[in-house]
# Entry
Amino acid sequence: MNDDAIPAPDPAFELVPERAVNEGDAHDQALLRRLAAGDRGALAVLYRAYHRRLARFCSRLTRRGDIIDEVINDCFWIVWQKAEGFRGDSRVSTWIMGIAYRCALKALRQHGEEPQAEDESAAGRMMAHDPGEDRERIDWVGKGLRRLPADQRLVLELAYGGGHSVDEIAAILQCPEGTVKARMFHARTKLRHLLPTLAGRHDGTEGP
# Structure
């Protein structure tokens, strides 16, 4: 496992292109500056841009739609309040995802919930960037993903679904970089063992 970078993804995953990430961050920073000046229209634009991503991210922790909506609303209330204090020490997406994660943990505690053990309701959505992507492959990988613990699914979501680096994921999840690398390593190892078996069952052959 390379200590300096995220391991190359399995064929089922596709990293967000670096150019798109950089261009997106410049746009997000411009929106934050408008927020800091009190522009509610900029908040609406940012909300629309991040709502789906945050809903998908929160669905890794809970299936309850009411909690997900609460977390997203709380997250953007904090973004609105704190926009002026953003200094660009991280990407805007890293900052927002970190806020959402903390809001999610707080909401789960308040509702007496624990992070879900499986993600059946959102299985496969991590890879569904291309509307024409093969639905069977999404279903196949989704079956593998929902057999992973929530913490391992989260690092895959952030790395391969959101294009975040190891240090950014560590900042979002408030844990050491070594923990992120370990979770990613174990998640990928489990998927390498699970997917051939699931693929055999998927095409009608017998798995081991």
